[in-house]
Write a sequence for this structure.
């Protein structure tokens, strides 16, 4: 993988993950909440969400579990600006897994 300094300006990385890294209760909350009302940028798609990763470990105002904050922390650790949470996305062994459905 290229080092951050070798990535051209204007190119950003994203972490591709399964929605299984969020408990069902969080997924329901993401669907039922008006995306515009969330305190962070998230764009809904047919199979998940594309979420902006706040810089500097800034916490998000989220009424769900801590799983989303863990996902965002993992993305920061990997120097990613976004997370794609997709129903068919890959599993990351460094994160909790919620086998609820």
């Amino acid at each position: 993988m290229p080092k951050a300094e070798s990535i051209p300006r204007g190119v950003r990385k994203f972490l591709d993950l399964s929605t299984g890294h969020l408990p069902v209760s969080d997924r329901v909350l993401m669907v039922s909440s008006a995306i515009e009302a969330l305190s962070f940028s998230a764009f809904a798609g047919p199979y998940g969400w594309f979420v902006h990763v706040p810089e500097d470990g800034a916490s998000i105002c989220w009424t769900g579990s801590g799983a989303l904050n863990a996902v965002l922390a993992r993305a920061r650790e990997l120097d990613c600006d976004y997370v794609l949470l997709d129903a068919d996305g890959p599993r990351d062994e460094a994160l909790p897994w919620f086998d609820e459905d």
User: Anything to note?
Assistant: The chain has one domain: 11-86. The radius of gyration is 13 Å. The mean pLDDT is 85.
